[in-house]
Design a protein that fits this description.
Blueprint lengths: L1 H24 L4 E12 L22 H18 L3 E7 L2 H13 L6 E4 L8 E6 L3 E7 L9 E8 L2 E9 L7 H16 L7 E6 L6 H4 L14 H5 L3 E2 L2 E2 L2 H6 L7 E2 L12 E3 L2 E3 L2 E5 L10 E2 L5 E2 L6 E2 L2 E2 L4 E2 L5 E2 L10 E6 L21 E2 L5 H4 L7 H9 L17 H7 L3 E2 L3
Helix pairs in contact: 2-3
């Protein structure tokens, strides 16, 4: 009888354990996807396709020591960014990508899965680093031999497929017709997908989110009668109006896409400066499949740009420095001329939030100023103890409440719970 009771107890304990184990397996996962144009990350092998300043071991100074500095600087940014998946632009080769992967591993960041669009001999290429398995990788060929191929990767996110179309379109040294070539390729791929497929279009489009307005009166760029790749061809506009979440979720097809820059106030919609003018070439564009109750979902209003103080020199982005007075010699300082952008996604159904960047416009009484609150005041909020309050204080100053996502120990779920209690006073 005693043995029988012991067996029953063991079975109950095992049942509870198994139940808990499987509940953990199916628990929703929130993950971060970023895009970063790293500004010319070259290896030390002469291939004949390099920009002249990046031919190794010449008067321009692209050598082992300089590569180590550039690699360390970019790795620092990526580590701080804490993305689970990062789309990269301006990577020369698989060797350069592996070099960066190894740099990151040495500082405790492991992206086990990498891919690059390297079937065409262009100077720089699109690439990806991921903590999730890459189950399929394709290159979408873009006509001209100098045009960078689009990288299409399918990731396995806990059994859910998630497609990224990673782009680096022709720069504005060329007219809009060159960028439309890319857009048509993307559009063709999208039209072949089922409506419920979860995908994003991400990267450096060398186009503003509202390019159809900003390029309109430029005779040098507008050789297409006002049609742009990022807006009319990819279809982030409908009837001359930017597609918002209402249009995206109200459509019967998958025709229209939503550019996440619209989640920002206009003054923050930039990730790059061109002769002092603010531009938004780096975009994350989402599909309607990310707004249903299946597979992967977008975490509403989680889009942001990564703009810590060290990525700036005065009012300008602290790009990779070259001495123009000495013919463009590398100085071994700086990062990139672009800021990274990022967004969160989840394996649980989408929950709409206030239409402001995550929680910045939630209004309650007795809000705590994030930049001046004392430790005891911070600890009055459930979920914030001595350790977390110290980290919050160490992370000051904050520009928005969303910046709390940069604090170790604060993820999307924690931020959702605590953000209504905070305000950032300027």
């Amino acid at each position: 009888m005693l043995r029988f009771r012991l067996k029953i107890k063991v079975i109950i304990v095992l049942s509870v354990f198994i139940s808990f184990y499987y509940s953990v397996l199916v628990e929703a996962k929130t993950f971060k996807v970023a895009s970063y144009n790293v500004e010319n990350f070259f290896d030390l092998c002469k291939d004949g396709t390099e920009y002249i300043e990046y031919i190794p071991n010449t008067k321009y100074g692209w050598n082992k020591d300089i590569l180590e500095i550039k690699g360390a600087n970019i790795a620092k940014v990526i580590k701080s960014l804490e993305a689970d998946v990062i789309a990269l632009q301006e990577i020369e080769s698989k060797k350069a990508l592996i070099f960066l992967q190894d740099k990151l591993r040495r500082i405790g960041v492991d992206y086990s899965y990498i891919g690059i669009a390297d079937s065409k001999a262009t100077a720089v290429k699109c690439a990806v680093m991921s903590k999730f398995p890459i189950i399929n990788k394709e290159e979408i060929r873009v006509g001209h031999r100098s045009e960078r191929n689009i990288l299409k990767v399918t990731l396995d996110i806990d059994g859910n497929s998630f497609i990224l179309f990673i782009n680096h379109w022709k720069s504005k040294q060329g007219p809009e017709s060159r960028r439309i070539t890319y857009a048509k390729k993307i559009r063709k791929e999208i039209d072949q997908l089922k409506k419920t497929v979860d995908f994003i279009v991400i990267g450096d489009f060398n186009s503003n989110y509202n390019e159809y307005k900003t390029f309109k009166y430029s005779s040098r760029l507008n050789n297409t009668g006002g049609i742009t790749g990022i807006n009319q061809i990819i279809r982030t506009v409908k009837d001359s109006v930017m597609v918002d979440e209402k249009i995206l979720t109200g459509q019967f097809s998958k025709e229209y896409l939503y550019n996440l820059w619209l989640e920002f106030t206009k003054s923050r919609r930039w990730s790059y400066k061109f002769y002092g003018y603010k531009n938004s070439p780096d975009s994350i564009i989402v599909s309607s499949g990310l707004y249903d109750d299946k597979g992967i979902s977008y975490v509403d209003n989680s889009f942001d740009k990564f703009d810590p103080d060290y990525l700036f020199k005065g009012q300008d982005i602290y790009r990779w420095q070259m001495d123009e007075s000495d013919g463009g010699k590398h100085l071994g300082k700086g990062y990139s001329d672009h800021l990274p952008v990022f967004a969160y996604f989840s394996t649980k159904p989408l929950h709409f939030k206030n239409n402001a960047a995550f929680c910045n416009h939630i209004v309650t009484s007795h809000l705590i100023d994030l930049n001046s609150a004392a430790p005891k005041e911070l600890q009055t909020i459930k979920g914030i103890g001595p350790v977390l309050s110290a980290r919050i204080i160490a992370g000051r100053p904050y520009k928005t409440v969303d910046d709390l996502l940069k604090v170790k120990g604060i993820g999307v779920k924690t931020l959702e719970k605590i953000c209504p209690y905070f305000v950032v006073k300027h």
